[in-house]
């Protein structure tokens, strides 16, 4: 199979970079090089931003109905090309094909939501708010927006950004992850096939230098980032210093609380799937399970379930989890497993040394489970981003909530219970932005906003839902009075009153 060279996308066309710095894109199940991606030059990034800036002058004037019809066409194309997009995700990320297809579906939800832009971007009107005075709001696009995405969802995360930004009248510059860019580039091609004009959606590639150039650039008015806490914090500060809007969805340590009254098999199957699906490479993965009271007696069943999960290449549809994205990711996860042993956690299932027939070079780590985990251990303090589940046992729901609220992150949490009273108390007293009740991964549907909190988020407004419309637009409030042609002034009014 020929190795594909990944282009940029500037002014409506794929453009090959002239950079001397190219990186290999590797199939994590085989270590086969499947593509090469450039780290774009500063001039190339400048060209992409300039294209977006120039295109904004006309795109902002395009009627809402036309923007809606483009989004309608895009959602149809994504639906049609789901198998192709999923295959590209699996080839470069490693997640299983069913999981990749599910990712495309979650991205599709956002595009479907953007199809409602004719309603989403409506303003408000107060008729005759004062004597013959009307007050109304308009939601105008900002200008050039930008997005920087992580490797773990190469379709869903770009969909969290550019569809609503473009639908609201902005133009866009996207920097996808250099680790698995092919599916993102195919998505961008489909967007142009749907009718997005040249220059409205541009793509550049690269590392920290490109990200910093985007954060610093005065032409870019808003930046959306999804990735690690370290990088997100740095970019947030740079973007703020440059005077632009910024949203950063960052690291997590998500907890799954299991009450003794929960449906036992449903709870165990759910927590295992959420902990080990995509090899744990999800910012919303439940990497900590908190067993409350008698639910601690379920530990053996959880261990048995973890041992029974199937590891394989992403193309193997009956596999529960595939490889980690890179050898470096595998090394880090295995190092943290070793640290957990040294720090006194009880290693119940060890996924190190996992081998898969026919794939000796794959970055495989099997399901790993620690019991007796405490808050001071490395495996709890750090976001492992691998198939490692930490089990904590507490006596009461109050203890569980205190434990979770003491963690600096607030991306997501879930509880399994059959008690409405317990669930309601949990959702009101837990200090986490996204909550699942008998739902293991509480990523809300796209017409609700992504609302991670505390250390997992910087910026007031998150992706998707109403918050995304607010993030990508500037609200203008107009106070207007129209006089009759022959109206005579009643005199000077030097007060603040509208009269």
Features:
7-stranded mixed sheet, 499 residues
Distance between the termini: 76 Å
Largest sheet: 7 strands, mixed
Number of distinct beta strands: 23
Number of helices: 17
Structure classification: alpha/beta
Enzyme class: oxidoreductase
Keywords: NAD, Oxidoreductase
EC number: 1.2.1.27
Domain Aldehyde dehydrogenase: 17-478
Structural description of this entry:
The chain is α/β, with parallel strands linked by helices and 499 residues long. The chain is built from 17 helices and 23 strands. The chain has helices at residues 42-59, 64-80, 82-93, 97-114, 117-120, 156-159, 162-167, 182-193, 208-216, 229-241, 264-276, 299-307, 327-342, 378-381, 397-405, 420-429, 465-471, and strands at residues 4-5, 8-10, 13-15, 22-26, 33-38, 125-130, 133-141, 144-148, 171-175, 201-203, 220-226, 245-249, 254-258, 286-292, 346-349, 368-371, 388-394, 409-410, 413-416, 435-437, 453-454, 457-458, 473-481. The strands form 6 sheets. It has a 7-stranded mixed β-sheet, sandwiched between helices. A 6-stranded mixed β-sheet has the order 10-9-8-11-12-22, sandwiched between helices. The longest helix is centred in the first third of the chain and has 18 residues, at 42-59. It starts with a strand and ends in an 18-residue tail after the last strand. The mean pLDDT is 96.
Topology:
Blueprint: E1 4-5, E2 8-10, E3 13-15, E4 22-26, E5 33-38, H1 42-59, H2 64-80, H3 82-93, H4 97-114, H5 117-120, E6 125-130, E7 133-141, E8 144-148, H6 156-159, H7 162-167, E9 171-175, H8 182-193, E10 201-203, H9 208-216, E11 220-226, H10 229-241, E12 245-249, E13 254-258, H11 264-276, E14 286-292, H12 299-307, H13 327-342, E15 346-349, E16 368-371, H14 378-381, E17 388-394, H15 397-405, E18 409-410, E19 413-416, H16 420-429, E20 435-437, E21 453-454, E22 457-458, H17 465-471, E23 473-481
Parallel strand pairs: 1-5, 8-9, 8-11, 9-10, 11-12, 13-14, 13-19, 14-17, 16-17, 19-20
Antiparallel strand pairs: 2-3, 4-5, 6-7, 7-23, 12-22, 15-16, 18-21
Helix pairs in contact: 2-4, 2-8, 3-4, 3-8, 9-10, 11-12
């Amino acid at each position: 199979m020929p190795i594909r060279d990944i282009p940029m996308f500037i002014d409506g066309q794929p453009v090959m970079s002239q950079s001397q710095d190219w990186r290999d894109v590797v199939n994590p199940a085989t270590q086969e090089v499947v593509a090469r991606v450039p780290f774009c030059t500063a001039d190339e990034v400048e060209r992409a931003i300039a294209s977006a800036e120039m295109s904004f002058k006309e795109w902002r004037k395009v009627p809402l109905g036309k923007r809606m019809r483009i989004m309608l066409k895009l959602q149809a194309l994504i639906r049609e090309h789901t198998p192709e997009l999923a295959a590209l995700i699996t080839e470069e990320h490693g997640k299983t094909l069913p999981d990749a297809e599910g990712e495309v579906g979650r991205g599709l939800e956002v595009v479907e939501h953007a199809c409602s832009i004719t309603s989403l971007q409506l303003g408000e009107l107060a008729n005759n708010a004062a004597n013959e005075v009307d007050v109304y709001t308009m939601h105008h696009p900002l200008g050039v927006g930008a997005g920087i995405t992580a490797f773990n969802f190469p379709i869903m995360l770009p969909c969290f950004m550019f569809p609503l930004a473009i639908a609201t009248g902005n133009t866009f510059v996207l920097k996808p992850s250099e680790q698995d860019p092919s599916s993102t580039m195919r998505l961008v091609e489909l967007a142009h096939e749907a009718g997005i004009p040249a220059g409205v959606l541009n793509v550049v590639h690269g590392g920290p230098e490109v990200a910093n150039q985007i954060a610093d650039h005065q032409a870019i008015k808003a930046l959306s980032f999804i990735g690690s806490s370290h990088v997100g914090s740095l970019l947030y500060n740079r973007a703020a210093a440059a005077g632009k809007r910024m949203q950063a969805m960052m690291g997590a340590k998500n907890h799954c609380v299991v009450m003794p009254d929960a449906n036992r098999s449903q709870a165990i199957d759910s927590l295992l799937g959420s902990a080990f699906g995509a090899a744990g490479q999800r910012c919303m993965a439940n990497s900590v399970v908190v067993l409350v009271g008698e639910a601690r007696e379920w530990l053996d069943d959880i261990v048995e379930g973890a041992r029974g999960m199937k590891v394989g290449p992403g193309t193997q549809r009956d596999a529960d989890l595939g490889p980690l994205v890179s050898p470096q990711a595998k090394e880090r996860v295995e190092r943290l497993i070793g640290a957990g042993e040294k720090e006194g956690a009880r290693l119940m299932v060890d996924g190190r040394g996992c081998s898969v027939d026919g794939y000796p070079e794959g970055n495989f780590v099997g399901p790993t489970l620690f019991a007796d985990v405490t808050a001071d251990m490395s495996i709890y303090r750090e976001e492992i981003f691998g198939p490692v589940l930490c089990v904590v046992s507490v006596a009461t729901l109050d203890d569980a909530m205190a434990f979770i609220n003491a963690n600096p992150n607030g991306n997501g949490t879930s509880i399994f219970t059959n008690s409405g009273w317990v669930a309601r108390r949990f959702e009101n007293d837990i200090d986490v932005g996204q909550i699942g009740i008998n739902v293991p991964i509480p990523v809300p549907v796209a017409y609700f906003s992504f609302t991670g909190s505390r250390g997992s988020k910087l910026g007031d407004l998150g992706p998707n839902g109403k918050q995304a419309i607010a993030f990508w637009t500037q609200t203008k409030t107009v106070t207007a009075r129209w006089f009759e042609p022959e109206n005579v002034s009643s005199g000077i009014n030097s007060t603040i009153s509208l009269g």
